[in-house]
């Protein structure tokens, strides 16, 4: 009876091991050499273990192991316990789901989540590995579409406890994330394994992602750290976490600033697709909320992932946003900002500012320009537009903006922009180049006063002649066609004479 439970023959043990794994994992099992040593303690050594799902010759094997050894004592083997197993050259390949039809009897589950067909394999009969570890293993996610590169997770160290096919298995692991590169420490539980669909296998735990280099993404940089928890199944994993990037930098602006993000997401571990249910970000004195997805690139592209978000900023400051995109030490403007936009970042090798797509609207209240000269001109505009003297307006003038915007290929288009100060309103449409910082806008300046009332003395008298040319349609105030061109550092404001004469005719 003892020898039946603890076979000492390599041939008998090899046959039993292959049959046991084939039955438990519902798979085809291949095994190379196997050797048994009984003294000074029981040790089994083997090579080239391959476990392949039935009928899946179209993908690499589910599990492949170059070599392994197992240590046990006779009493432990009598209780079907193996003290320790070490795996070298472990590759775990997660294939895409072929959506194969499962027999009705396999679909029915027991209370512990296992198929009915596994009832005969009770825990009492199952072999338990007290401790299993491996070094430099790989978890490989095979894409659904041919021609796409698999996603590879390098697992430096993995340690599992009370390992058995039909039960939850505690584990600790350290691995390297591919993009962005960084080290992840994970602790949790895995299993029981689902033979019919690997994606249904339970998984839960906590993670600590340290020193992720964001510089791999062209256009941004910084060192990110993240902590959180996860739970669910391999194909539907809920993740709650927080990230801190103390030196987040957008290349086009060049100013590092702290960025803190809380998030909730659903992750498909079989393909890496991520549904972002809630993103709550804080940077400087501004807040951002968003939801969306990070999905694999569509068929026919060069790979990578597309980030798609709906973004809302109800409590933000324009100076914080400008710090991302403007190179000057001091942001050109301050004020309260509200913004809504669609955010799309497709994969590619170009700079983030060139790939980013935005489509939304914004409102800017109580804005002031930080340049003394620019703010002075705005206050002068307000004074003249209201036909008031300098003594009549001693307070600082603030501006309000409303507009719609679209960003694509590094070019910001503003099809509708309204700028208001007391006594004047500017309506513009045009575009701004983020890299070359060029400006091209046309629109109109609406004044409460007549043109002749914006100046004094002889000039006022002379300009009375042109008041009819610039009067608004309702007969009050003035409407002046304008254009703005040049660069951000040297903008050129001028009268659009062609439109003036066209209006006069």
Tell me about this structure.
The chain is mainly β. Among the domains are: 1-97 and 124-167, no CATH class; 371-505, no CATH class. Helices cover 14% and strands 51% of the residues. The protein is built from ten helices and 25 strands. It has helices at 2-5, 10-25, 74-78, 104-107, 318-325, 352-355, 372-385, 458-463, 467-470, 497-504, and strands at 27-30, 34-37, 42-53, 63-72, 81-94, 128-141, 151-163, 169-177, 182-190, 202-213, 220-221, 223-233, 236-250, 257-267, 274-283, 286-296, 305-317, 333-345, 357-369, 399-408, 411-421, 424-433, 438-447, 478-487, 491-495. The radius of gyration is 34 Å and the shape is rod-shaped. The N and C termini lie far apart (112 Å).
Rg over CA atoms: 34 Å
- The chain-level mean pLDDT equals 81
Q: Can you tell me the overall shape?
A: rod-shaped
Q: How many runs of DSSP E, i.e. beta strands?
A: 25
N- to C-terminal separation?
A: 112 Å
Low-confidence stretches: 1-6, 100-124, 389-393
Continuous helix count: 10
Strand content: over 45%
Percent of residues in helical segments? 10-25%
Structural class call reads: mainly beta
Q: What characterizes the major β-sheet?
A: 25 strands, mixed
In a nutshell, what does this entry contain?
This protein is mainly β.
Annotation keywords:
single chain, 505 residues, mainly beta, 25-stranded mixed sheet, 10 helices, 14% helix, rod-shaped, disordered N terminus
């Amino acid at each position: 009876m003892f020898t039946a439970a603890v076979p000492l023959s390599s041939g008998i043990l090899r046959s039993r091991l292959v049959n046991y794994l084939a039955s438990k994992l519902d798979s085809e099992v291949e095994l190379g050499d196997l050797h048994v040593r009984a003294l000074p303690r029981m040790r089994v050594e083997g090579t080239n273990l391959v476990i392949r799902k039935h009928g899946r010759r179209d993908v690499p094997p589910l599990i492949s192991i170059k070599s392994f050894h197992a240590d046990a004592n006779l009493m432990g083997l009598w209780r079907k316990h193996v003290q320790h197993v070490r795996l070298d050259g472990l590759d775990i390949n997660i294939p895409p789901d072929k959506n194969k039809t499962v027999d009705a009897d396999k679909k029915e589950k027991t209370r512990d989540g296992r198929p009915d067909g596994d009832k005969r394999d009770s825990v009492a009969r199952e072999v338990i590995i007290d401790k299993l570890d491996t070094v430099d293993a790989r978890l490989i996610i095979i894409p659904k579409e041919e021609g796409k590169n698999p996603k590879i997770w390098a697992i430096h160290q993995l340690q599992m406890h009370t390992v058995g096919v039909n039960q939850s298995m505690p584990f600790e692991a350290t691995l390297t994330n591919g993009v962005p590169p960084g080290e992840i420490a994970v602790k949790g539980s895995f299993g029981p394994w689902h033979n019919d669909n690997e994606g249904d296998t339970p998984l839960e735990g906590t993670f600590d992602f340290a020193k992720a280099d964001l510089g791999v993404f062209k256009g941004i940089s910084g060192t990110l750290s993240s902590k959180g928890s996860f739970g669910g199944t391999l194909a539907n994993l809920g993740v709650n976490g927080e990230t801190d990037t103390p030196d987040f930098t957008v290349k086009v602006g060049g100013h590092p600033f702290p960025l803190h993000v809380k998030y909730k997401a659903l992750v498909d571990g079989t393909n890496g697709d991520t549904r972002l249910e809630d993103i709550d970000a804080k940077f400087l004195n501004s807040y951002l909320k968003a939801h969306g997805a990070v999905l694999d690139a569509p068929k026919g592209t060069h790979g990578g992932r597309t980030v798609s978000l709906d973004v809302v900023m109800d409590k933000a400051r324009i100076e914080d946003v400008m710090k991302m995109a403007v190179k000057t030490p001091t942001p050109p403007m301050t004020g309260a900002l509200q913004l809504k936009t669609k955010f799309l970042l497709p994969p590619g090798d170009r700079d983030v500012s060139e790939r980013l797509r935005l489509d939304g609207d914004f409102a800017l209240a109580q804005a002031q320009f930080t340049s003394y000269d620019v703010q002075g001109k705005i206050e002068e505009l307000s004074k003249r537009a209201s036909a008031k003297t300098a003594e009549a307006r001693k307070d600082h003038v603030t501006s309000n903006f409303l507009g719609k915007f679209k960003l694509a290929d590094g070019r910001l288009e503003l099809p509708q922009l309204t700028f208001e100060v007391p006594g004047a309103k500017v309506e513009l449409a045009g575009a701004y180049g983020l890299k070359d910082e060029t400006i091209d806008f046309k629109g109109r300046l609406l004044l409460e006063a007549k043109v002749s009332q914006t100046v004094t003395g002889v000039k006022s008298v002379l300009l009375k002649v042109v008041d009819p040319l610039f009067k608004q349609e309702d007969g009050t105030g003035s409407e002046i066609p304008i254009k703005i061109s040049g660069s951000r550092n040297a903008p050129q404001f001028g009268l659009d004479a062609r439109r003036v004469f066209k209006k006069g005719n």
